[in-house]
Amino acid sequence: ASHNPPEWQGIKFNPRQGYPAPTKLTDVIASRASFRQLMNTPIERQDTVAAEAAGTFQQFDPRNLYLDYVRNSGKPGANNRRLSINLDNIKQYFSGKKLILDPMYGSGEGYLTKILGELGIPHTSLHDERDEDLGKQTETVRGIPHLEYANPEPDFIQPLVDAVIAEGADLGLGLDTDADRFGVVDRGGKYIRPNQILAMLTRYLGIERGEQGRVIITQTGLPMIDAIAGKMTGNDAYRPPAGTIPAYISHPFYYRRLGSETSIAFTNTWVVPVGIKYIIDVARVPMGVTDPRKAYDTLSDAQMPAEWMDTILIGGEESSGLTTRGHVPDKDGIWADLLILDMLAYYGLKSPSGQTSLSDIWRETTEMEGAWKTYGNRIDLDTTTETKEGLLNYFLDVFKNWPEDGTLPTIAGLEVYYLGGTRYDFVEIFLQDEQYGKRHFLRVRSSGTEPITRVYVESADEAIAQRMLDAVLAQLDVLNIRIIGEAYSIDRLADVLSNTHSSPAAHKAAADLMAAKGWPKSAVIEALKLRIPHVESRNVKVVHEWLHFLEQ
């Protein structure tokens, strides 16, 4: 179901409460699965017909159940505190407008189509049939290029961007293949980042509608959301206790290299590691906790009240996953898309012109008192294991022994007032300058599901955001030059290049090595071509970039 390649898949297990299994449980499952594989233990199989007759297996079509769920969410007399979706507003506002949907050949096909169809809203769909091959087998017949990844983020959401532009649509809504993540394209083909969506929904739900509950972001989230959440009235009971430090900072493997934890403590939002299961954990924190040291302590399954998901208002990730009060304790891309439609309808109908866009709502959000214009970006770098570890360790250790004399080191011309992280996993850097203050953020994170390193930048100035990104890329070049230079054979060089971010510095390092070793360019090209059938889809692109350089 995931957009990731098959070799990086595994088992997804949710306990009976519906939330993602905690690490201590998945570790047990992984250990037992590995043992069975090691011992070559056969897996017991069951016939689905027999299992269904025995009552141990059930098939059902969830579409109508889901639509009834949406209609009853938060409605008077429905006996639930879930957020309501105003379908009448959506019908009124989007009447005569055009929407484009892209379920990316996945299981989310048919849900939004049915809702919009019942409301009479004009829409078209891309990639709207189930196809586990993402269109590869049918592209020559249908004339439609296959999807490289079913991932509703740039660059893979480009077909939806192109369709919104070509058809003059008002909005494009995407899903990944298991429909737990969303992607949004505004009028004119502008992609809207998930962090922007989370900020706008926090404003819409918490301020405009006056809803209450905990607001939860991850360590790669948008810090400005804390300022927006601070404007929610009557929400004090759902804020972290004063002085609360994110729980991950207290982990024994977390190293604080510069600054005080209190300098990065948010007062209105809960901050957790990347992963929806950590967001859901905050819903399991009992109400009324006043001790900041116990702010993230969760209830056991036996202690959890029936409506335990009612404690949160919204929790979301930079990687396009979110959930809300009383909703399923996992990511839901369809629900996210419905909330976006609901928000647009609300602001559009109250606008004097009767029109709005996500870009308009975003601009108004950044102009709120205490908020600010913020520019962000995330790049995914193809890296060898050595490079990935080296990049994280460099930033974690670069200021390890910095003197405590009041002076601050700099990165990209900005003062670093806090730096901490976990080796091989994550580094967070908070920076400041005289013009914008403490509104610059740099994070480097090793993906837990793909062989890549993610770099996140956020700044009150677009040029400064690019400078921070350039600083990371410069250090990446230093590491790549060393690792390429250590290649001891043509095959080893081909292996390294297949997983190495292409850049002028890396190109020069490879050319210098081949010249020094006397390796024919044709031999390296042949070695790279031999790897194309065996590397992941994303690395095929990397190989072709290197082939383009070598064949010039």
What is the CATH T-level topology of the largest domain? Alpha-D-Glucose-1,6-Bisphosphate, Chain A, domain 3
Q: What are the segments in which pLDDT stays under 50 over at least 5 consecutive residues?
A: none
State the major sheet: 7 strands, antiparallel
Structural class: alpha+beta
**Overall average pLDDT:** 94
Number of spatially distinct domains: 5
Number of strands: 16
How much of the polypeptide forms β-strand, as a percent range? 15-25%
- Intertermini distance: 39 Å
- CATH homology superfamily of the largest domain: Alpha-D-Glucose-1,6-Bisphosphate, subunit A, domain 3
Q: Tell the overall outline.
A: globular
Percentage of residues in helical conformation? 25-40%
CATH-scheme architecture of the largest domain:
3-Layer(aba) Sandwich
Radius of gyration: 25 Å
The CATH class of the largest domain: Alpha Beta
Q: Total helix count? A: 18
Question: What is this structure, in a nutshell?
Answer:
It is built from 18 helices and 16 strands. With 552 residues, it is an alpha+beta fold. The strands form 3 sheets. Strands 7, 11, 12, 13, 14, 15 and 16 form a 7-stranded antiparallel beta sheet that branches.
Features:
alpha+beta; 5 domains; Alpha-D-Glucose-1,6-Bisphosphate, Chain A, domain 3; 5-stranded mixed β-sheet; 7-stranded antiparallel β-sheet; globular; 16 strands; 552 residues
What would you note in describing this structure?
- The protein has 552 residues and is of the alpha+beta class.
- It has 5 domains: 6-54, no CATH class; 63-192, Alpha-D-Glucose-1,6-Bisphosphate, Chain A, domain 3 (3-Layer(aba) Sandwich); 210-331, Alpha-D-Glucose-1,6-Bisphosphate, Chain A, domain 3 (3-Layer(aba) Sandwich); 375-483, 2-Layer Sandwich (TATA-Binding Protein); 487-550, no CATH class.
- The chain contains 18 helices and 16 strands.
- The strands form 3 sheets. Strands 7, 11, 12, 13, 14, 15 and 16 form a 7-stranded antiparallel β-sheet that branches.
- A hairpin with a 3-residue loop joins strand 13 and strand 14.
- Helix 14 packs parallel to helix 16 (504-517).
- It is globular, with a radius of gyration of 25 Å.
- 41% of the residues are buried.
